[in-house]
Write a structure and sequence with these properties.
Layout (H helix, E strand, L loop, with lengths): L8 E10 L4 H17 L2 E11 L10 H14 L3 E4 L5 H11 L2 E4 H12 L3 H17 L4 H7 L18 H31 L3 E7 L5 H9 L16 E6 L5 E6 L9 H6 L1 H4 L7 E7 L5 H14 L6 E7 L14 H4 L6 E3 L8 H12 L3 E8 L5 H9 L1 E8 L2 E9 L9
Parallel strand pairs: 1-2, 1-3, 3-4, 5-7, 5-8, 8-9, 9-10
Antiparallel strand pairs: 6-7, 11-13, 12-13
Length: 421
């Protein structure tokens, strides 16, 4: 018998924290970096944190901590150093040469996870664009050295073969990938257009990564989406239909999760996917109520939505995993600080089903804002109006009587006059 289990990459996490950051923010950031490393298939064997007035331009951390890092690499047999902030090519080179092991940053780590989890052609193209954009901004020879240090985190995916190319070739490759993505986006826009022309309302599920968005989608629609306790377990958008008891249908779309320090070019690359939120009738923000860093995570979600230019759409906030919360949620979360109204929030557990009915009720209330109920008897000569109600509103009853057709349902206020004539 031979042991064939792949040995996990051993990593040391390094964070140079600015003196403006408090201890909680520093701890949350390094803990999230560890989660990212675990998702990429690595194991943390050590960490170094240093508080500085500003980052060291040459080595990211100070000389004393650098010596400590060298010793830690020797003691643990680490393969890789992962820094919590984006490094310049010279900083990555300096740390790699000083320690003798590969050195990457948070951005490369996130790109690697995206490359690992992209399943559809569209997702792979978006990852390729992001990797090419990063390589272009860091083209100084650093990654030639990384490629000689072997495989592992930061060397997977479409960007791997383009590390040693020059700027012109990389730009050409980015242009080609964007052309392919545009073709995919045309198909997505056509799908969105059909949704908008139809009567089915859409709800875009957004939130911090690992907040339970996929679990919620599965609970609502039996979507069968991969749901793991890992960051960025799913990247590609999934849309599924939910049917209320009276037959009314709603589409739920799950999107890629957000994370702190998400690189701008990564948001740009995944803009077509994230635009599911822009075309939605309702945005459902899912937050992990059991996470001590919930408030900061919610701020990241709102900031990302703002960066995408998504505004003017009604938002419901669902605080998930309420079954794991000790005590009252209100004691750990300030709705006022987040600019949220209590009537637009609901506490749920996608795992147990707690609060799901209340959530669906809130969604329905928002969807029907601006609509009026129809309860009338149409003459047989006006039977064509029934089709208008089907296409533009929601028909709940169609009963043929001797003196006419009794119909009930809902339609936009602007079309109410058709049924009052």
């Amino acid at each position: 018998m031979y042991e064939t289990k792949e040995e996990k990459e051993k990593v040391i996490l390094v964070k140079a924290a600015l003196s403006t950051e408090n201890s909680t923010e520093i701890r949350n950031s390094i803990d999230e970096l560890e989660e990212l490393a675990n998702t990429a298939g690595a194991i943390k064997v050590g960490e170094i944190i240093q508080v500085l007035p500003k980052f060291n331009n040459a080595s990211y951390i100070g000389s004393g901590k650098l010596e400590e890092l060298k010793l830690l690499v020797e003691e643990t047999g680490a393969d890789t150093i992962i820094c919590d902030d984006e490094l310049t090519p010279s900083q990555a080179d300096y740390l790699s040469e000083a320690t003798g092991v590969k050195c990457i940053d948070r951005t490369v780590l996130i790109l690697d996870i995206f490359a690992l989890h992209a399943r559809t052609d569209e997702g792979k193209i978006q990852v390729g664009i992001a990797q090419m954009s990063y390589a272009l901004s860091h083209l100084s020879g650093s990654y030639k050295k990384l490629s000689r240090l072997g495989g592992g985190i930061g060397t997977r995916g479409p960007g791997e073969q383009k590390i040693e190319t020059d700027r012109r070739i990389i730009r050409n490759r980015i242009s080609e990938l964007r052309r392919q993505l545009k073709e995919k986006d045309i198909s997505r826009k056509n799908t969105r257009k059909k949704r908008l022309e139809g009567t089915i309302k859409t709800v875009a599920i957004v939130g911090y990564t690992n907040a339970g968005k996929s679990t919620l989608l599965n609970k609502l629609t039996d979507a069968g989406v991969l749901s793991e306790n890992k960051l960025f377990a799913t990247l590609d958008p999934v849309t599924r239909k939910y049917t209320y008891e009276d037959g009314e249908e709603v589409l739920f779309s799950d999107t890629v999760g957000f994370v702190r320090k998400l690189p701008h070019f990564l948001i740009d690359a995944f803009r077509t996917t994230l635009m599911e939120a822009e075309y939605a009738d309702v945005i459902l923000i899912v937050g992990d109520a059991s996470d001590p860093d919930l408030t900061n995570q919610m701020k990241v979600v709102h900031e990302t939505l703002s960066e995408l230019g998504i505004e003017g759409i009604r938002i419901i906030t669902a605080f998930n995993k309420i079954d794991l919360v000790d005590g009252r949620l209100e004691e750990k979360l300030s709705l006022k600080e987040l600019g949220l109204k209590k009537e637009d929030t609901v506490s749920i557990s996608a795992a147990t089903g707690q609060g799901i009915d209340e959530l669906l009720l809130k969604i329905r209330e928002i969807i029907h804002e601006g609509s009026v109920k129809i309860d009338t008897i149409l003459s047989y000569s006006d039977a064509a109006k029934i089709q208008i109600l089907r296409e533009k509103g929601h028909l709940t009853l169609e009963e043929y009587l001797p003196d006419g057709i009794h119909i009930t349902g809902e339609i936009d206020k602007s079309l109410e006059y058709l049924f009052n004539e």
